[in-house]
């Protein structure tokens, strides 16, 4: 059969997802752009994690189809999916006593056959994942003795060691201090630009999303409110409408990407403490 670009990567077609009787997502059409960094953004409870879990094959849609490289995800084994799609869940848990290196080595599981021996390629992938996340020196430490940010980097390293073409990351910057957040965003952007990875990341920081992602998908109430390049999605009108918050969009003075500044507090709270001047500069309330 002739394969086309449409057969490569992940795509949801007419997907509905429910927890029991509550329908969370309906009529979702989302073709994940191959070789792009897509940021999934939206208010709390808008369905970001739910959609990510469905794209990872962890939730079976009530209706519609999710395709991986043209094949129905529901027809593929967990191991087959894991060779192609790496997943960083939100708040993952690990058994007590597991060291960072043990965890990272788990990332190689999808590449091992039943009696397959640990290979040099496995070692190299783990070493590289530890180095990329800057946690080589923590390799022997049990996970439960680490700070939240160190633990989060260990989980990211495990996902990297999996060496998949597609990575689905649910709030990867959770627990990370600002410097490590920026480092991680650079790392993701580099993996996409230099290694052709496809990344979908749930992000709460709209400005980081607009700065580093090449595409944004903004959700509201389980539906796509807007999708496209950050400059297309990050408009004052869309952000205000989706988040119910008046905002001003200025140009990020460093990256040149759209940057969202909340323009006012709720009217009940009185006038804003800070107002945005015409040139995008902050002026204090007098
Ligand atoms: N396991 C579950 N069982 C029942 N309802 C759930 C479950 N997980 C999520 N939900 C509900 O589904 C809706 C979407 O949740 P989801 O976690 O996908 O949102 P989100 O956009 O990722 O939110 P947040 O930004 O707060 O992480 C919410 O109303 C939530 O209460």
UniProtKB/TrEMBL annotation:
Q: Which GO terms describe its molecular function?
A: ATP binding; ATP hydrolysis activity
Q: Which Pfam families match?
A: ABC_tran
Q: Where is this region: Disordered?
A: 266-286
A single GO BP term for this record reads: iron ion transport
Write down the InterPro entries for this protein, in alphabetical order: AAA+_ATPase (IPR003593), ABC_transporter-like_ATP-bd (IPR003439), ABC_transporter-like_CS (IPR017871), P-loop_NTPase (IPR027417), Siderophore_ABC-ATPase (IPR051535)
Query: Where found in the cell?
Result: Cell membrane
User: Per UniProt, which keywords does this protein have?
Assistant: ATP-binding, Cell membrane, Ion transport, Iron, Iron transport, Membrane, Nucleotide-binding, Transport
SUPFAM superfamilies with a match to the protein in the record: P-loop containing nucleoside triphosphate hydrolases
Where does it primarily localize? membrane
Q: Which residues form a coiled coil?
A: none
Q: Where does the ABC transporter domain lie?
A: 10-246
Protein's membrane topology: Peripheral membrane protein
SMART domains per the UniProt record, alphabetical: AAA
Recorded GO CC terms: plasma membrane
Q: Which family does it belong to?
A: Belongs to the ABC transporter superfamily.
Q: What is this protein called?
A: Iron complex transport system ATP-binding protein
């Amino acid at each position: 059969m002739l394969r086309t670009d449409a057969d490569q990567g992940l795509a949801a077609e007419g997907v509905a997802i429910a927890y029991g009787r509550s329908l969370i997502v309906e009529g979702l059409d989302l073709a994940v752009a191959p070789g792009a960094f897509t940021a999934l953004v939206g208010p709390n409870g808008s369905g970001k994690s739910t959609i990510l879990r469905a794209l990872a094959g962890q939730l079976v849609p009530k209706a519609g189809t999710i395709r991986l490289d043209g094949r129905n995800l529901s027809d593929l084994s967990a191991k087959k999916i894991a060779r192609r799609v790496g997943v960083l869940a939100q708040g993952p848990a690990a058994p007590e006593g597991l060291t960072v290196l043990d965890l990272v080595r788990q990332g190689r599981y999808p590449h091992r056959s039943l009696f397959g021996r640990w290979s040099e390629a496995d070692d190299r992938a783990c070493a590289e994942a530890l180095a990329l996340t800057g946690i080589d020196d923590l390799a022997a430490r049990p996970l439960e003795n680490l700070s939240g940010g160190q633990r989060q980097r260990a989980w990211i390293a495990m996902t990297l060691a999996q060496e998949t073409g597609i990575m689905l990351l649910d709030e990867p910057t959770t627990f990370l201090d600002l410097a490590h957040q920026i480092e991680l965003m650079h790392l993701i952007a580099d993996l996409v630009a230099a290694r052709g990875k496809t990344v979908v990341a749930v992000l709460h920081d709209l400005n980081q999303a607009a700065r580093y992602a090449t595409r944004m998908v903004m959700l509201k109430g389980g539906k796509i409110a807007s999708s496209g390049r950050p400059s297309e999605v990050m408009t004052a009108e869309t952000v205000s409408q989706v988040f119910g918050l008046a905002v001003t969009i200025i140009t990020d003075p460093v990256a040149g990407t759209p940057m969202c500044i909340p323009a006012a507090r709720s009217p009940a709270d009185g006038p804003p403490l800070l107002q945005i001047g015409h040139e995008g500069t902050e002026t204090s309330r007098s």
